[in-house]
Amino acid sequence: MGKPPFPTSETLIAPPSWRCIDFISDLHLHEDLPKTTAALAHYLDTTPADAVFLLGDIFEAWVGDDMRTQPYEQRCADMFAKASQRTRLFMMVGNRDFLLGPDMVAACGAEHLPDPTVLCAFGQRALLMHGDELCLADEAYLRFRAQVRQPAWQQTFLAAPLTARLTQAQQMRNASQMHQKTQAPEQWADVDEASAGQWMAAAHAPTLIHGHTHHPQTQSFGSEQVANGVRHVLSDWDLDHAHPRAEVLRWTAEGFVRVSWR
Predict the structure, then answer these.
(1) Which domains does the chain have, with CATH numbers?
(2) Is the CB of residue 192 less than 8 Å from the CB of residue 137?
(3) What is the pLDDT of residues 65-74, one digit of tens each?
(4) What pLDDT, on the 0 to 100 scale, is given for residue 7?
């Protein structure tokens, strides 16, 4: 697969009043995850963050903003809307919820966050991405991504009845879970470091923050493109199955720390 283009990154400048910024991703919210949903609600009620950035895969699947009329999704919208009264929320789409649109974002009291975005805070620049676009080894997924991100494909898909779209999403979810069972987690595709370095250099951002891979880590990142760079990979959230995990990456003037929310 060829190197991805370097899109012009949107730039968001944090107000001077922001003292604490949180990043989370890969919540994969679904009605079958009551403990995860409850933990998220508690986190949103108690976080000291002035802004919370949700970097994609907020929902396990999103088949159109009319999905917000479903009972569970409506509860999630209400949960986010409540949180938006005390902190600013930013939502970026991921590979699972790329059809998350302006109606649902507005219902959540959130602001749409383009992928990628450069966040300027505490005198630094950080490149925010979901991360899937840089997993160059996952060629089958990237072909699928190129297809479903086309406006014509989305228009055709969204024209189908909601029940049909929900059924198709469930089928795709089942297929994805079966595929994951054939591979150990360490075999899942990761971000291509050379391309990531090029994207960071193009954005003039020595720090990259992304999710998608479900391999939380903080990694020093030195390359021809970026000297003394750092990559922060966000945790996925799942408190309903084995190996519970729920982690927040927190940014303050003192630097980055990881906060467990189990």
Answers:
(1) 10-260 (3.60.21.10)
(2) yes
(3) 999 999 999 9
(4) 59
